[in-house]
Structures are given as structure tokens and as C-alpha cells.
Amino acid sequence: MEKSEYEIMYFLESSYWWFIGKQFLIQRELESLSRSMGGGGRILDIGSGTGLNLRILEKYGKVFGIERSTEAIGFLKKRGLDDIACADAREPLPFRNDTFSAVTCLDVLEHLDDDEFLLSEMYRVCKPGGNLVITVPAFQLFWSPHDVALHHRRRYTKRQLLGRTRNIRCKIVKASYYNTVLALPIMAFRKLKSFLPVRTHSRSDFFLPLPEFLNKTLATLFKLEISFLRYLDYPFGVSLLVILRKGGEKGDRKSK
Questions:
Q1: Is 231 buried (19+), middle (13-18) or exposed (0-12) by CB count in 10 A?
Q2: How far apart are CA 52 and CA 14, in angstroms?
Q3: Is the pLDDT of residue 128 over 90?
Q4: Helix 17-33 vs helix 212-227: angle between axes, to the nearest 10 degrees?
């Protein structure tokens, strides 16, 4: 992503509605998955950004992160996070097979040309019975300068993302779109933004200043929607969540 985006992310992660909702999503899902992890274990976060997600993951096990951006690593150090490997997700992960009880990849796959390679590496370093937790932006119709600023290669449908996992033996624990309630307003805003004069450098939507009341309202709506993800699979949304559980035997196949 553009270097300026890391600084924005660092300062907004704890207060901007989108980040608050995403952190709530991570917390809810890891609370549920921690039972299958025996209440702990090692967790790997791929593409750790500026680090607030790692603080959430620390509640559920010993956390390790990888990040290739020197700008992001500087912000990770500011947060006092040390178990970070400077590594490129386009290359083999610097860990042994069957090391982690959970591997999180939160809005990273869309940055890679070869996303299937990273999925296979996540599978390799995950223990049998462990979980892969993946979020990506959904639906190409939402494509906008926001994606350009974040250096996205694509947005996904559920079918496309699950198709990328065809060569790994995993059970599909969860596959649902989210950020559904706000999807239409976001699409309208992004399409309008696409017609505005092009800046020299694209900027993400995170640069948009919001009144405190509106920001809190959006965060509340987002968190309320996520609360129902445990019981529902949303058919549409700005983002996509997929959770896979690694099989332990050669005969294991994907199922739901």
C-alpha cells in the first residue's frame, strides 16, 4: 500500500469504525476457535500491518507476525511488538511444518499475484486440526480508488476464494460475506468517488474525516451485524470471511 497509509492506519486503528468492526470480528471468531486450540497455542499473523490486531490475538495464544514493509515494522516496534519476522508473504514462510494452532491472513491475499502459493504455505505451517482465518475485500463492483491506494490486485467472491483452496485438505468452518448493512452506502460513495478528478496519489477511504457521532453509529451497526455472523452467512457484503480447519488425514476433504 502507499507508505502514507501506514501512518493513517496506526493512528486510526483504535478509533475508526471500520477498524473497530474488524477487531470485533477477530475477537469473536478467535473466542470461538480457541476451544479447538485447547485454550491457547501458537498463532501466526501474516501481514501484521501496524499491529493492533496482534494485541487482540495475544489473548488467545503466543503470537508471531510477519511483515515485509519497513514502514509498518517501525509502527509495530512503537507498539512494543517484538515477535515479528521481516519476511515476504510471496516467499516460503520462515517456519517449520505444523507449527501453529491458528494462522490469520487479514486483508493480505488481495495484494498478491500468486495468492494460492500463500494459502498453501499457511496450510503447511498450520497444525492438523488448526485453523486458517482469512478476510479479503469482496466483489469487484466495489473497486475504487480505495483499492488502488492499498495496492489491491483484486476483490473476491466466495466462490473464487474457496476455489483457491482446492489443493489443500481443509474443512470449511465458515464462509460468509460481512459489512453487509453498510454495503450499498459504501458502493454509492465509492462509485461517486471514482468520477472525481484523479489525484496524483490515490487515497483510501480511511482519509475521510467523520463526525464522532457518525463514526460511533457506524461502528455500532458494524459490530451488531458481526454479532449475528455466528448464526448467519450473509449473501453479500463489502468483505468476505473464510475460516478453514486443516485436516489430519490424507482422506480428509473440504466440507461444511
A1: exposed
A2: 8
A3: yes
A4: 20
For residue 138, the number of C-alpha atoms closer than 13 Å in the C-beta half-sphere is 23
Contact assessment for residue 12 and residue 207, using Cβ atoms and an 8 Å cutoff:
no
CA distance 189 to 230: 29
Q: Which residues are CB-neighbours of 110 under 8 A, at least 6 positions away? A: 136, 137, 152, 153, 154, 155, 156
Residue range 18-43, pLDDT digits in tens: 999 999 999 999 998 887 666 668 99
Cβ-based neighbours of 57, under 8 Å, separated by 6 or more:
26, 30, 43, 45, 63, 104
Q: Where are the beta strands (DSSP E) in 138-218?
A: 170-178
Q: Could you give the residue ranges of the DSSP H alpha helices within 69-125?
A: 70-78, 115-125
pLDDT of residue 107: 95
Cα angle 250, 253, 256 (rounded to 5 degrees) comes to 150
d(CA 139, CA 253): 27
Q: Alpha carbon of 249 to those of 162, 165, 204: distances in Å?
A: 20, 17, 43
CA–CA separation, 180 vs 21, rounded Å? 12
8 A C-beta contact, residue 44 and residue 62: no
Q: Is the CB of residue 106 less than 8 Å from the CB of residue 43? A: no
| Cell digits of residue 195 | 468520477
- Domain extent listing, the chain: 3-246
> What's the CATH fold of domain 3-246?
Rossmann fold (3.40.50)
Radius of gyration, alpha carbons of the chain? 18
Residue 24 CA to residue 20 CA, distance in Å, equals 6
